Amino acid sequence: MSLHVIQALVLRYLFLYTRSPMRLIELIFWPVVELVIWGYLTLFIQENTTGDFPRIIVFLLGAMILWDVIFRAQQGVAISFLEDVWTRNLLNVFVAPVRTIEYLAATFCVGFLRILVTITVLGLVAGLMYSFNIFTLGWALLPFFMNLMVSGWALGMISTALILRWGQAAESLAWAVPFFIQPFIAVFYPVSAIKPEWVQTISWALPPTHVFEGMREVLKTGVFAWDKFFWAAGLNLIFLTAAGMVFFYMLTLTRRRGLLTKFATQ
Amino acid sequence: MPSPIPSEVILEARDLTREFDGVKALDKFSLKLHRGQVLGLLGANGAGKTTAMNCMLGLTLPTSGGLYAFGKELQSHRIEILRRANFSSAYTALPANLLVWQNLLVFAKIYRVPKPKERIAELLEMMEISHLHKRVTGQLSAGESTRVNLCKALLNKPELLLLDEPTASLDPDIADKVRKIVLRIRSELNCGILYTSHNMKDIEEVCDHLMFLHKGKVVMEGTPKDIVERSSSSTLEDVFIKIARDGEIVDETAKKEEVAP
Which residue ranges form the domains of chain B, and what is each CATH number? Predict the structure, then answer.
């Protein structure tokens, strides 16, 4: 794997973002709108409930911010690929000395950079408007963040593999795929709230579920749940490997069927 | 135009067959491209030129047959080969919202070009488009885009260059400039060039050797002059039309040889 090539591809995305302010707005505008809505809802609930609940309910804001980590990481992979399709640049990249793993690594870096931009803005808005300090999660934030980012990368590869399989007609999957799993990963509610109960087994099989449950535990008890961290990390390893295999398989299939050029020049 | 003496084979296709849903887009297609040679692939739409080029770029996997560049098998030495090759097509583009220098710098870094800024300046000057350095790529005319694409294709001083219809949709003046550039590249870099075009003027002026494809098969090959003579046609365009319509052409030389005692 060549760092040179990864650096060059990341540079291309940086040029793209700095030359297109609309892309930066997309990175900031929607997450901030969502945060503001969830923020007001949290304030409303806090004012109208008693006991421990008002303190715990701030997890809604934490959940919203951490959900964005998955979404931005996934978008980093899937949208970066689509950018090449939209600009008819995909062939130039695929006939250049770029290994698939280098291409993916560059999109992972883009995902990471997208997260940094969004999280910084969301953290500031949450702090200023709702006095919610994302760092109340303490150092637990880092392993949560890493795990969610890896989950996002895996989802990004799956989205891209599906687009490769069904062509540009399926490009809306680049936005939809994370939402397929959102109801089951207990972002805004505990796993115990998911019914019927057998669906909870599916929830526990998904790595982000352990992160969101772990986050609630930190906010509630102040204790870092190591078991949930290890479950998330282990499952992420399996998911990332499986997603990578699906992506490579679809890419080979697309080449074998001769669809890559049609797809890239349509 | 003098033909260079064929030298080292830098690209070879051996009995390449590519089927799509049972239809053969390429049927036991073989080719040898020598260093310093410009080889033209000709044929009507659907004849198999693009499939052949895509196979040679590793974008499409052949159903059977072998592909070799610089004496090495393409799929197993893909990266090593692609570092020494490059490609430009009328049907691909560089990201439209990047500036010309930004696009070229990215590819210069991918190809590990030493002193990339100097190389970019040199190529832009060669293409007579230095003034476009800071222009937005998407705002360029067809002729300007083609020349920027050619700059991209020459960044790494390729030993093997694949050009897919480089003069498509260009006005005669720019097309003429592009043809001259291709010839200059060949002599300066001594590279092998695989060239597809529907423009017979291109082919006559640029190519040393031609291969006519019809339904995935090579139906005629030789130098442009040789092909016109052998087919009793007045121009290369006539040969093209005959092949496109009839699928084959009577090779007069071969016929005379058969009749001779």
Answer: 9-84+158-221 (3.40.50.300), 93-157 (no CATH)
